[in-house]
Amino acid sequence: MNEPHKQQEGQGKEHGPQVTFEHVNSLAKVKLAADWDSLISALWEAAYSELGEPHRPDDRLQGADGSDLMGYLGLTLRQAQDQKILHGHHFQIVGPTGGASA
Amino acid sequence: MNATPPIQDVHAGRQAFARDLERYLDGRSLTELGWDRPDDLTLLVPLFAILPSGERDLYLLKLVFDYYPAHPPRAKFINPLTRDYQVGLDIMWVPRGEGMSDLGFHANYNNGGQLICSSMTAEFYEVQHHVEPGHVWVPGKHNFLSTIAAIRRGLVPAHYRGRTSA
To answer: Which residues does chain A have within 8 Å of residue B102's beta carbon, measured at their own beta carbons?
Structure first.
């Protein structure tokens, strides 16, 4: 069983960190008090609710560093942090874009 | 479909940039974010790119809003010392990415200069790149943060492979 994380700056007093979701298209942000055992998918849905924005089918979730989190939605915050998938508690909701590397 | 060339509108760009930036900052300062606004049409954004080893390289992204908001900002990586980009001289200030399906960094695209190949940059439309209808910039839906977020996707360990070299 994982040891509880040490409280750090920005964390809630009792349970877990405060997470921020940024809805890129509307430039709106929302902060949520999360539990370490919260699923990333559940936090994402809660963010839509707080933001008053619909969850569009082609929306994607990424970390503030640009990392794609779509493959990790089923992890809890604790799992994602322990697996070093999350670098901070700041998320961005983005839409699809096009381009090419060739 | 191919992207249609953008039309410059400095007046509209200045207004929309000021509006969207203020909205995004929401009381924060540019200094807090480490950004700079050298004039009322330009935003400079430092970005760290992360190699698979965890090592980080610093880049400076320049956004110019003279086509905004009808079109995305122009976007270019620049030499942070000169705040300019000279083809050939400054290619090390352009990140090299691989395996990106929706983004490309080109130090000298078809000998026409640097191109950040994303539907969230104005240059993408200038070169009339092929684009899926669902990926086209939509005024009012997209904004400069969409541009930064799209570019950041190429700077993560899964895609970033170091500085461009000759």
So the answer is: 96-100
B134 and A96 in contact by Cβ < 8 A?
Answer: yes
**Tokens coding B20:** 């969207």
Q: Is the ipTM of this complex over 0.90?
A: no
pTM for the model = 0.89
Residues within 8 A of B (CB atoms), A 7-46 only = 22, 24-25, 27, 29
Determine, for residues B156 and A101 on separate chains, whether the beta-carbon distance falls below 8 Å: no
What distance in Å separates the CA atoms of residue B142 and residue B71, rounded to the nearest whole number? 9
Confirm if B150 and B103 have CB atoms less than 8 A apart. yes
Which residues from B are below 8 Å from A29, CB to CB?
Answer: 26
**pLDDT tens-digit series, residues A19-56:** 999 999 999 999 999 999 999 999 999 999 999 999 99
CA gap A47, A53 in Å, rounded: 9
pLDDT digits (tens, 9 = 90+) for B69-117: 999 999 999 999 999 999 999 999 999 999 988 899 999 999 999 999 9
| Strand pairing report for B56-64 and B74-78 | antiparallel
